[in-house]
Amino acid sequence: MSFHHLDQYATISSPVTRAVPAVRVLGTATLACGAALLPLGAWVPLLVLFAVVVLVGGLARLPLTAVLARMSGPAVFVLLASAGLLFLVPGEPVARLGPVAVSDAGFERFTFVLGRAVVALGAAVILVSTTTFPQLLQAFRQLRMPNVVTTALALAYRLVYLLVDEMERLQRAAKSRNAGAGRATRRRLLVSVTAAGLSRAFARGERTHRAMLARGYRGEAESLDATRWELRQSLMLGTMVLFVASIVVLAHARP
Amino acid sequence: MAHIPDGFLSAPVIVGTTAVSAIALSIAVRRSRLRLEEREAPLLGAATAFVFAAQMLNFPLGAGTSAHLLGAVLVAVLVGPWSGMLVMFAVLLVQSLLFQDGGIAALGANTLNVAVIAVGVGFLLYRWVLALVGAGSRRRVVAAGVAAFLSANFVGIAVAVELAVSDTVPLIPALVAVGGGHLLVGIGEGVLTGAILAMLLRSRPELVTTGATTSAAVRGWAYSAALASAVLAVVAVYMASARPDVLEGAAERLGIADSAGSYLTAPFANYVAPVGGAWIAAVLGVGLIFLVVWIFARVGARRRAQV
What we know:
The structure holds 2 protein chains of 2 kinds. By secondary structure, chain A is mainly α.
């Protein structure tokens, strides 16, 4: 089990991958928050933000098919989650789907929620395609996230592959010894596997921590890849924040 | 548990939930360091990795459906509530950024629901049930299961309220759709949390140290809170509105209310007992619910002890 397939475009040299990871994270958060803060029905500002996402994706030299493929899974979830809006929001009925009516207000809310989600998803997919997990951790540290959270994430990143592999092996072994067993037995086996996984995760975490202490760890994880903030990147980020903020303000100020 | 995607929440809700989550997490960082000291990093790293891994294992429920562990109460019981909040926040952060499971702008709301409410309220409920029933192994399993079930329902209510305040969906349909879904999720979560905790208590009991003992004062407070809840429930049932609900109202407007019939005559129809009226109906109703829940808890504790 590995998440390395997520990093296959992170090595492509582009203005986006050359930016400091913290700038990438803040840029993504700016676009996602900008889309989320737009008032209902502000289609033109939403299209402008979508154009910014497409532009950043183009600058990052990401293949369109890869971006669409990575967006498709979460987009289906958003589609399913927002489908209820069609029927739950009160309004004038415009169509009927079996016994339930689709309201005009529900349709408007459904389409706009989808639009906002697509902009945020696009920004997130560009971030994850251009940024490796260690770079994300570096970004969190640069953004002054509590040390305990970044250290826990770093340790979890080291442990999670091993743990998932181990739990899959335990599950296979349990299944092979209980071939043909009923659903109740399978459930009990899965509970045993999960409890064993938890117990082993704690044991492995303690061993890893002892090894880290032996190598000189004193509560601060040092990174060899310490990319520094440059004035040019700060200016680029500041411009983007101002641009998105002005779009949101204008969208709220319209009559 | 519901991870709200981007696009569903309004600006005030995004800002408000982010502020509350930030305050809660900053307290959690300080309290977690005080409690765990140098063991903090390995414990939280292992717990974060476990929650990731456990959420990838699907348990068959039947009828082609499956569920996975969410782990909020389990983690709180193992590493404490403050550290548990940090673990769930770390999981949410990676899920939203790497897997787009939950929105980036909605991270504050999701943190409030899954890290603060599910872990914090879940742990309080766990301690409350423990204080009521005592702190034996079987009782800890039942307490964790009940707390996991209830905390999932609290999350469902929180999500519904956030969606309603954002003016995305009216409150009642949101409560029915999201709250109803979390009722089912809560049952699975309660069973899985109890079952995994029971296995851990047998194989590595030293891992489960949280809430091992309760003082007499804590137990007194717990019983007082239980009594207050019962009184509140009785008053709420007594003061229930006599007006028709949404379905009855619609039936009246359509002129089909008279066609309603019943196959069984309820003993306390319209919340009125044959003797004593509404007060007796309220007291008996609340008492009956407590009795049913108590029987379920006892049966659950016995079965888990036999596993």
